[in-house]
Automatic annotation (TrEMBL):
Lineage of origin: Bacteria, Bacillati, Actinomycetota, Rubrobacteria, Rubrobacterales
Protein name in UniProt: Putrescine transport system permease protein PotI
Location relative to the cell: Cell membrane
Annotated source species: uncultured Rubrobacteraceae bacterium
InterPro entries: Bact_Polyamine_Transport, MetI-like, MetI-like_sf
Alphabetical list of SUPFAM superfamilies matching this protein: MetI-like (SSF161098)
């Protein structure tokens, strides 16, 4: 019996060493992570693939083509009026949102970071309130406000821009405040000790140091706005203000052509490009300053 126990121990040890990596982390966590990644990305890859299909089939591959992007004279994204209008509307909303929300978010981040008096903590908490509010609640609330309280704001592009800015400003504040905390107040105080006014210190010292976070905030605001569905749908007026997500939702149930896949692919590429630019800008700033961690981890915390 003693010999049998001694012989079984090496087998258990070998199994344990195979199942764990050299750092003591279980291999099943790695396998589970990759399984989840494949499960979530394979459907997206298939949808993107059939946007480049030569034929109309959305289940059988018939060859590579740009027909559904620019080639088909009637059904492609470029030539279909409704698809082209949705693309233009989404790009217009995203551009306006990032140009409005970013300056507001930068100003609020600086104000909240430098505010140390009474009410600073409640104000900081309320600034993050849109992040924890369900988006459908935000959409319904804005719809009711614009319809019953602020009647001069008509549903459509104007209401959508206001809704997107309201929802996006908090993300800009988070990005910029993270940069503010890493910079500190020493540079501003040194500039003011040398004779600069508070405004001059802000303009010539602080804002240039916040430039990477500002550029990243522009991209984050663009990415959040262009793929928003709930607020865009609630604040939409007529069909001319339909965005890409709204168009995809309405067309996906009606035997769509692969042009819908192409439109969804454009939305995906635009969002990925914006976030990639933001990560590269923040990563370059981190490397220049020798900071620890990575920009990818920072953006993962944003829960975009």
């Amino acid at each position: 019996m003693t010999f049998g126990r001694a012989e079984s121990r090496p087998n258990a040890t070998r199994f344990k060493s195979w199942w764990s990596n050299p750092w003591g982390k279980p291999r099943f966590l790695v396998l589970f992570t990759w399984a989840y990644i494949l499960w979530s990305l394979v459907p997206v890859a298939i949808a993107v693939q059939f946007g480049f299909n030569e034929g109309r089939s959305r289940s059988a591959w018939q060859g590579f083509s740009l027909r559904w992007y620019v080639g088909d004279p009637n059904l492609s994204v470029l030539h279909d009026p409704s698809l082209r209008a949705a693309l233009v509307q989404s790009l217009q909303l995203a551009a306006l949102t990032m140009l409005i929300a970013t300056p507001l978010g930068v100003a609020l981040a600086i104000g909240l970071a430098r505010w140390s008096g009474w009410g600073a903590r409640p104000a900081n908490f309320l600034m993050l309130f849109p992040l924890v509010t369900p988006e459908i609640v935000m959409g319904v609330a804005l719809f009711l406000v614009f319809v019953h309280l602020f009647g001069f704001v008509r549903l459509g592009t104007m209401a959508q821009v206001l809704g997107h800015v309201t929802f996006t400003v908090s993300y800009v504040v988070i990005v910029v405040r993270g940069r503010l905390f890493s910079v500190g107040r020493e540079y501003e105080e040194a500039a003011m000790d040398l004779g600069a006014s508070r405004l001059q210190a802000l303009r010539t010292v602080l804002l240039p140091m916040l430039a990477p976070a500002i550029w990243a905030s522009l991209m984050v605001a663009f990415a959040i706005s262009i793929d928003d569905f709930v607020i865009s749908a609630f604040l939409m007026g007529d069909a001319s203000s339909a965005t890409i997500p709204v168009k995809l939702y309405s067309a996906a149930r009606l035997a769509p052509s692969p042009a819908i896949n192409a439109l969804a692919s454009i939305l995906l590429f635009a969002s990925m490009l914006a976030i990639t630019i933001a990560i590269l800008v923040m990563g370059r700033s981190r490397r220049r300053e020798g900071a620890e961690g990575s920009a990818v981890e920072d953006f993962a915390r944003l829960d975009l």
